[in-house]
Each structure stands twice: as structure tokens, then as C-alpha cells.
Amino acid sequence: MNPSVNGHHRKRANHHTVVAIVEDKPGVLMRVASLFRRRGFNIESLTVGHSEMPGLSRMTIVVDGDSAPVEQVEKQLYKLIDVIKVSDLSQEDIVARELAMIKVRCNNLNRHELLDIAAVFRADIVDIATNSIILQVVGDEDKIDGLIKMCEPYGIRELSRTGRIAMVRGTKTTTVHEPEPERIARFHQTQGRRVEGELPFSSD
Predict the structure, then answer these.
(1) How far apart are CA 118 and CA 137, in angstroms?
(2) If you compute the radius of gyration of the chain from its CA atoms, what whole number of angstroms results?
(3) More confident residue, 71 or 126
(4) What global pTM score does this model have?
(5) pLDDT band at residue 32, thresholds of 50, 70 and 90?
(6) Neighbours of 111 (CB within 10 A)
(7) Residue percentage of the chain with pLDDT more than 90
(8) Which residues, listed in sequence order, are joined to residue 68 by a DSSP beta bridge?
(9) What number of other Cβ atoms are within 10 A of residue 198's Cβ?
(10) Handedness of CA 108, 111, 113, 119 (dihedral sign)
(11) Are 3 and 118 within 8 A, CB to CB?
């Protein structure tokens, strides 16, 4: 077994990675999910967290390309009044990571085998009990898939896995330090973004 541990992300066929910088306001996640549902876009994973700028959150969305051309995904996201910037990373050289916790059945006879497997995949042991062990692993999808496959013969009692987060290598960023694109600024002006009070929702 040769898990990927060097940080290089191998692009998966027909999967688009899109990063959206959004205003950190209640209901934004629901609006994004509703938009994708209405359009029939299949979300493989969606991860949301704070960005480097106060008041802004970063969404990393992995979309099944068979259900939606990436250009349509970007266009529809920009229709949401809370979306400030959308970046398609599908053709970029990126660093991508997921985190997973795996609770595996074990006993005194095979526990050392699981510890050896964890060492190969550079997974951390975060809990050990008499009949189970919890492994924590960070890496790309292939690395995590490989560890899960190795643990399956022992019996996986529980699996918790995050979605993908990603950054472009080098100096290029997906942040909003750069000015908002002019055509998007014009669109948002007509829709009343940054007004006082509750922000409107730009429907289809």
C-alpha cells in the first residue's frame, strides 16, 4: 500500500472543486444548498469555516461534474446576494485535505496490527479502549480511502469524515483582498447588497 503523503492532489474525473467566499450571515448555507437542489447539482462534499477576514466565511464545494458544468455552478452561486467571490480550482495545482476519525474493532491480539497500519498512514491514535481504537488521519481523499480499506477487515464501528478543503499552490489565492470583479460589483449594486438590515435573496 502506498498512501499519498506528499501533499499533491490528484484531480478526480468529473469532480469540480469550487471555493466561494460568502458573508458570514445566518441562512447562507441554506441558500447555497437550496440553490444546488433546485438546479439538480449533486454536491459530493461541502465544507464551511471562517476565513482570514472577519465577517467572511469560506465554502469549499466539490460538485459532481456530470450533474453540472462548472460554469453553471459559478453563475448560479453569484446569483446569491451573500456570495462575494467564486473560484474554480478544478484545473489548478492545489493542496487538498480531509480529516477523518475511524473507530475500529480490536482486541489484545490484533491491536498492534492496527497500530502498525496507523503508523504507515501517519494517523494519530486519539482513543484506545479494550475493544476499539479511534484513528485520526489528515490527508487527501486517496490516503483516507486507503486507510479505511485497510481497517475494514477488522470492522469499522464508526466513521466521521469531513469534506475537502483546498488552497492553490504558490502566490495565487481565492481571497477577496483583490477588488471585487467589476461585472459582479455591478450585479450586486442592482441587487442591493451591503444595505442595512436583512439582506435580500436573489432568486432565479
Answers:
(1) 8
(2) 20
(3) 126
(4) 0.71
(5) confident
(6) 17
(7) 43
(8) none
(9) 9
(10) negative
(11) no
| 164-165-167 Cα angle (round to 5) | 135
Q: Could you give the C-alpha distances from 186 to 77, 179, 189, 191, in angstroms and in order?
A: 16, 13, 5, 9
pLDDT score at 7: 41
DSSP states of the chain:
-----S-PPPPPTTEEEEEEEEE--TTHHHHHHHHHHHHT--EEEEEEEE-SSTTEEEEEEEEETTT--HHHHHHHHHTSTTEEEEEE-TTS-EEEEEEEEEEEE--TTTHHHHHHHHHHTT-EEEEE-SSEEEEEEEE-HHHHHHHHHHHGGG-EEEEEE---EEEESTT---SSSSPPPHHHHHHHHHHTTT-SSSPP----
Assigned C-alpha cell, 67: 450533474
pLDDT for res 68: 66
The pLDDT value recorded for residue 57 is 92
**CB–CB of 61/76 below 8 Å?**
no
Q: What value does the mean pLDDT take over residues 77-106?
A: 91
Output the nine-digit C-alpha cell for 68.
453540472
| Nearest partner of 105 among 147, 149, 151, judged by Cα | 151
